[in-house]
């Protein structure tokens, strides 16, 4: 892992420790499992906290073994692994930067060595840095945001695709900002637009192989991403209040969308985006 990259990301305290948040995000699955992912192996990036942790917990409850990919928050990743194991499933933690193609190749090789196969890839990891003016976005930040948010998805799929068979699923995390825009998240929103286009195009590319590709576009969700530097203090004061529901969402309100798209319930869906966003109506 490149220490310079880690230091740069941590300029805003990112990715951020979930254990430091108050109140804590709700990650716990809300219902008993029904075996919808029994015998499956899922690779989830950014699974140490936030939406990724909630997805890992729900996937494990539904019968999947989970590879937890994360950047550097080892305590959070260890807790997610414990959550998976408490559901009776196997967990593998792998630390590194998904913006590094070699790391993605090594990580997928480790997953195959450990579990023997991959059935679901969840491209969830992302970063954001608020800037009030486009001239405030440094060249380094611009490159870094794209490297994590969209290059990392390309690298993960390139590494995983030789191991995906008919019936496999890829679920990407885009954002409501792709549809609404965000005046303080110009580079982040641009990457989310790229992710939506990537999802639709990758679906066209893989659907004949029986591999489905879909995405989830969350609205404002209470995770470490925003309070640990991904939003301005002014934005945090009213975080989520501008949604029709008048509040931010919780990770366990988003995870079921990732489950639906990963399992056979969504067998006739590919190239689509689900919108757990608090009631905001978008065209897409």
UniProtKB/TrEMBL annotation:
Gene3D superfamilies: NAD(P)-binding Rossmann-like Domain (3.40.50.720). Keywords: Oxidoreductase. GO terms for molecular function: oxidoreductase activity, acting on CH-OH group of donors. PROSITE patterns: ADH_SHORT. It comes from the Bacteria. Signal peptide: none annotated. Belongs to the short-chain dehydrogenases/reductases (SDR) family. This is Short-chain dehydrogenase. It comes from Sphingomonas hengshuiensis.
